[in-house]
Structure formats: structure tokens, C-alpha cells
Amino acid sequence: MAQKKDNRPIREKYRIYFAAGITAWIIFMFIHPVGMTGNAMSPTIEEGQIVMVMKDKYKTTPPEVFSVVNFRRDFSDMGEEDSNKIRRVVGIQGDTIEIRNGKLYRNGELVDEPYAVGNMEDDVAEITLEKGEIFVLGDNREESLDSRHLGPLPMSDLRGTCTRILWPLSEWGNIK
To answer: Which of 116, 152, 156, 158 lies at 20 to 30 Å from 60 by C-alpha?
Structure first.
């Protein structure tokens, strides 16, 4: 029996492959999955969870205050192997940050932090963030290596905003 010749136009034959390629390109360009290591962001993000990072362009616009971001930095001098971190932005360029008696102050106002657990043992003297700088803290204050130890981060270290927990599926949802 002779096989029928497929007379459909090429674009129709390969439409599904084209759509898959475009989808893969969009994901590669704008989305990056990151696994959480350590307990610095607990209980918001637990160790082993995988989050979706939207690759934002922070060249001119700083992230929103209280957003959760992913950044890369060399921590080898601090005994940390993983240079890929997730933390919460608590201050952006122009803000004045201070930690006094275990409490966070932004621009002189006490910050309500319902997401934070643990105590901040060390005070941080008032600091005004320069253009292109942010101040980040982990939600689990007793377990976090953050701007209290590193100082302000340059926005050039940012990789993107953590928007959603992807894995495990039972924890799927937006990051608050």
C-alpha cells in the first residue's frame, strides 16, 4: 500500500515545534528556577524548595522594597560554598536603614515584618544607601548571611525577583 504524501505547507507541519521553540526561548530569557539552600528564608521559603526567578533588569530601576530577590556573590572568604542566594529587599537607593535593639528601621520608621522570625542580635548603625545599592535580610534572622554582614549589595549582583514556589507541588504558590 502506498503511503499518502503530506501536502500541508511546511509552517503547518512544524507549527508545534516552532511553538515549543518560542516557549523554550521565552522561559530561558525571562525565567530561571533556583533551589533554596539553607534556612535563611524560612518559613517563607524552606530548604530544598525550588522557586521561579523572573530575570528582571535592574540596571535602572531598583527592585520593590520587601520583594524577595535572587543574587550572586562570592562568599568563599566567609566559608560559604554557594554563591547563589535568596533574600528579602528591605531598603533601596536613597533609603536610610538602621537596626536598633533587634528592630529594623527604614527612613526612621519602625518596619512591621510579619514574615521575619528569630532575633537580630547585632545592631547596624544608620546607613544611607547610595545609587545602585540595596539592603537585604533573610526572613530567618538567626540563620541568615545578609547585608548585616555583607553591607549593601550592588544591584548588579541581582539576578531577578523570586515570584513563586515551584517545588514541591504541594507548596506551589506565590511568594509573599
So the answer is: 116
Report the percentage of the chain scoring pLDDT > 90: 27
List domains and CATH numbers for the chain.
33-174 (2.10.109.10)
C-alpha cell at 19: 511553538
Strand partners, 167: 50
Q: Which residues pair with 134 in a beta bridge?
A: 92, 153
DSSP state of 18: H
Place of cell 545609587: 131
Whole-angstrom Cα distance, residue 44 to residue 145? 16
CA distance linking residue 10 with residue 45, whole number of Å: 46
The more confidently predicted of residues 73 and 137 is 137
For residue 63, which amino acid is it?
A: P
Are residues 52 and 35 in contact, defined by beta-carbon separation less than 8 angstroms?
Answer: no
Q: What pLDDT, in 10s, does the model give residues 31-60? A: 788 888 888 998 988 899 989 888 876 666
Q: How many helices (H) and strands (E) does the chain have?
A: 3, 12
At CA 106, angle to CA 98 and CA 174, rounded to 5? Answer: 115
Cα–Cα distance for residue pair 176/126, rounded to 1 Å: 27
pTM summary value: 0.79
- DSSP summary character for residue 140: B
